[in-house]
Amino acid sequence: MIAFLRGIVADFFPQRLILDVNGIGYEIVVPLSLFDQLNPVIGKEITIKTYLHIRENAQILYGFANEAEKGLFTLLIDRVSGIGPATAIAILGSLPVDRFKQAVVSGDVTSIARAKGVGKKTAERIILELKDKVGLAATWEAQALGSTSESVGDAELALLALGFKQAEARKAIAAHVKVNAQADTDELIRAALRILNS
Question: 46, 10 in Cβ contact below 8 A?
Answer without folding.
Answer: no
